[in-house]
């Protein structure tokens, strides 16, 4: 088995830590910030911007199992497998892709939370008739 620079064993996506060959239960939270512009009188043509970064929170071993090489660990390298982190993010920007990987690994959505705020409007020097809104959304997935 290969090891990280700290000496901890590296896990492949198909490995688990319980030694019995079964999958570990646990939670993974997916989060992202978004923004959108709504024109005069909340027109139906709201303009959404792409998701800039999808963050991952959970035990390191579970995150590596589900996301493998698409997990960017640069903000929290060499994290022990049984420790939690909220500093990982994905190398892709498609929520559907993250949801598919979680589903394929046996996770189900347990909760969702979202918040939004008007960040920039005409009174703050923004576009004449538009208001720019920002949001933060989290999806909690669990596997029993």
TrEMBL record:
An example Gene Ontology biological process: regulation of G protein-coupled receptor signaling pathway
Keywords tagged on the record: Cell membrane, Cell projection, Membrane, Phosphoprotein
Pfam families: H1_KCTD8_12_16
Domain KCTD8/12/16 H1 per the UniProt entry, residue ranges: 26-143
Source organism superkingdom: Eukaryota
InterPro entries assigned to the protein according to its UniProt record, in alphabetical order: H1_KCTD8_12_16
Keyword Cell inner membrane among record annotations: no
Compartments it resides in: Cell membrane; Cell projection, Neuron projection
UniProt keyword Cell membrane, yes or no: yes
GO CC term, one of those recorded: postsynaptic membrane
Name this polypeptide is given: KCD12 protein
Organism: Piaya cayana
